Amino acid sequence: MADGGAPVTMSDVARLAGVSTATVSRVVNGRYGVSAETIAQVRSAIEQLGYESSLVAASLRRSRTDVLGLVTHNFQSYTAEVLKGVMDELSQSGFDLIIYANSDLFGRYSEGWEQRHLARLSGTLTDGCIVVTPSREVRSSTPVVVIDPARNSKTPSVTADNLAGATSVVEHLLGLGHRRIGFIAGRSSMEAAWSREEGYRAALAGAGVPVDPELIARGDFTPESSEPLARALLDRTDRPTAIFAASDAMALTVMEVARELGLAVPGDLSVAGFDNIPESALAEPGLTTVDQSMYRIGCEAARMLKALVRGEWEGPDQTVVPTRLVVRGSTAAPS
């Protein structure tokens, strides 16, 4: 604090460093044209006085903050992998990143979280935001890129090729000889959930296997939602010989329920998921899944948002990232 307890200003820093306020501004904002010796003087004065620049003040002066935001409902393995891609793409770009999530990281789903988070960040704190898996269309005064958009969303987005990925994993199960294949779908408000279900149905149709509605259950991508659904499918007298879950988190829970019921994976039940989160490779047995390259999705979202903020984006409104089937020990021919 300056004399009398007033907040420290750039003028205070300039007086102590023996330079102009304009020079302090150039140092604080990382601009060129200042010698290394002067930068050292200014930084020493900043440290002595405890000066902190304000993102809001900077945005009012320059109409840009050079800060981007990432908002999410909570942090799970999926979000962490996306974040790695975002941060790598933003390194050396001149943009900083603010990450905003519910304070209850693993809390219950809260309706309307997307718009609340954007309202807090857009405009004065950030130049644009990435929104991870929103359940509805989002609105913002600044550019937004959505990862895994809501159904029928018009917002610029990045997503995996969910249809091709789901088709490939169900074709894998069919190729092993399975015909009673259960499916646990994801949250119905998301386009990815519908595309993965469409892939499931398309693979069965391609093999001439009728779709049994009794083998389709609807979760919301979370492990909590899949536990009772898996139990209901596996308690049937005509239980499926394989289950494809629309997320790895749900598939791993299916494996846990199967073990509780005395069923061996894959001896009694084959299980497959979607995402290829790190835990899927560490499971015992390893989980067969679809790799949607969450890291690359994060990179692509950050690349799109940077270009939108700079007014340079000339690509399509949606970037689709290819998927890859990863076969591990959780799937085998039916006994």
General description of the model:
- Helix content is 41%, strand content 15%.
- Helix 1 crosses helix 3, helix 5 packs across helix 12 and helix 9 crosses helix 10 (248-260).
- The chain is of the alpha/beta class and 335 residues long.
- Strand 1, helix 5 and strand 2 (96-101) form a beta-alpha-beta unit.
- The mean pLDDT is 88.
- The longest helix has 16 residues, at 191-206.
- It is elongated, with a radius of gyration of 25 Å.
Give the topology.
Blueprint: H1 10-17, H2 21-28, H3 36-49, H4 55-62, E1 67-72, H5 77-90, E2 96-101, H6 113-121, E3 128-132, E4 144-147, E5 157-160, H7 162-176, E6 181-185, H8 191-206, E7 216-218, H9 223-234, E8 242-245, H10 248-260, E9 270-272, H11 278-282, E10 289-291, H12 294-309, E11 318-321, E12 324-326
Parallel strand pairs: 1-2, 1-3, 3-4, 4-5, 5-11, 6-7, 6-8, 8-9
Antiparallel strand pairs: 10-12
Helix pairs in contact: 1-2, 1-3, 5-12, 7-8, 9-10
What can be said about this structure in brief?
Helix content is 41%, strand content 15%. It has 335 residues and is of the alpha/beta class. Strands 2-1-3-4-5-11 form a 6-stranded parallel β-sheet, sandwiched between helices. The protein has a 4-stranded parallel β-sheet with strand order 7-6-8-9, with helices on both faces. A two-stranded antiparallel ribbon has the order 10-12.
